[in-house]
Write a structure and sequence with these properties.
Strand order of the largest sheet: 1-6-5-4-2-3
Number of strands: 6
Distance between the termini: 42 Å
Largest sheet: 6 strands, mixed
Strand content: 5-15%
Radius of gyration: 18 Å
Number of helices: 11
Structural class: alpha/beta
Helix content: 40-55%
C-alpha cells in the first residue's frame, strides 16, 4: 500500500511541471528584481476579477530554447508560478517568443499579436540579440519606441525584461566581453521603463546571484538558459509580479 502511494505521488509530480519544477534551492528568489514604476493597474483589476491573460513577446528565452522539455521553459513555469501564488485566479500566459528576434522584429508584429490575444499585460523581453548583433542604440530605441506606441494604443500593462548575463569565461568569441554592453542595455531599459510607467524585471541583475546554479543557469552553448536557469527566472518573475498584483 505504501509503495503504491509513493508511486502515485511520483507520477503526479512527473505529470505536473508546477509540482516538479520550482526554483532550485540555490536560486535567490526575491520580489525586489521587479520594479513596477506605478504600472500594472489593469492586471491588478484582472486578478481581482479572477482571470489574468499575459502575452509574452521576445526571442529564444521566451520561446524556451535550451530547456530539456517545452514545459520547463520560462513561459509555462511562469504561468504555473503565478497560479500557485494566486489561488482562484485563472492565469494564461501566451508564448509568442521567436528565437533570434530583435526589437525591430518584435515591434513589427506586436500589434497583430495583441489583437489576437487581447491580454491584460504584455511581457517584452528585449536587448540581447540587438547587442550581440552590434545594432546601434539609436536603431534599437527607435524600434523600442515604435513598439511603445503600439502598447499605448492597446492600453495594456507592460513588463519589460532586460538582457541576460553571459558567462564571463565563455570560449565563444562572439559572446566574450559582451556583458558590459548588455549591462548598458539593461540600464537604458530601466530608464525607459521609468519614463513610460512600465514595470521592469531586472534579469541581468538577478543573474548575478545565480552562482549556485548549474553553469550559472546557462546551458552548454553559453547563451540559452538551462532548466535551472529557466526555473529560477520564472520563479523570480512570479514572485515580483504577485507582490505587485495582490
Amino acid at each position: 500500500m505504501i509503495r503504491t502511494a509513493v508511486a502515485a505521488l511520483a507520477l503526479v509530480a512527473l505529470a505536473s511541471p508546477a509540482l516538479a519544477q520550482t526554483a532550485p534551492a540555490a536560486c535567490p528568489v526575491s520580489a525586489e528584481h521587479v520594479v513596477t514604476n506605478d504600472g500594472l493597474s489593469k492586471s491588478r483589476a484582472a486578478v481581482a476579477a479572477g482571470r489574468l491573460t499575459i502575452l509574452a513577446m521576445g526571442s529564444s528565452s521566451i520561446e524556451g530554447a535550451g530547456a530539456s522539455r517545452r514545459e520547463l521553459g520560462f513561459v509555462p513555469l511562469l504561468e504555473a508560478g503565478l497560479e500557485r501564488r494566486l489561488p482562484g485566479v485563472e492565469v494564461t500566459v501566451i508564448n509568442k517568443g521567436i528565437g533570434g528576434e530583435t526589437a525591430k522584429d518584435t515591434a513589427d508584429r506586436l500589434e497583430r499579436e495583441i489583437a489576437a490575444s487581447r491580454p491584460d499585460m504584455v511581457i517584452w523581453q528585449l536587448g540581447t540579440n540587438d547587442i550581440l548583433r552590434d545594432r546601434p542604440m539609436d536603431d534599437i530605441f527607435g524600434d523600442f519606441r515604435r513598439g511603445e506606441a503600439v502598447l499605448e494604443r492597446a492600453g495594456v500593462d507592460v513588463l519589460l525584461i532586460d538582457p541576460q548575463r553571459l558567462p564571463e569565461n565563455t570560449p565563444n568569441p562572439a559572446f566574450r566581453g559582451r556583458n558590459p554592453g548588455l549591462a548598458e542595455m539593461s540600464r537604458l531599459i530601466a530608464l525607459e521603463g521609468g519614463r513610460m510607467g512600465y514595470a521592469v524585471l531586472h534579469r541581468f541583475e538577478a543573474m548575478a546571484g545565480w552562482s549556485g546554479l548549474s553553469r550559472g543557469g546557462v546551458g552548454p552553448d553559453d547563451l540559452h538558459l538551462n532548466d535551472e536557469g529557466y526555473a529560477c527566472w520564472a520563479e523570480t518573475t512570479a514572485e515580483g509580479l504577485v507582490a505587485a498584483l495582490r
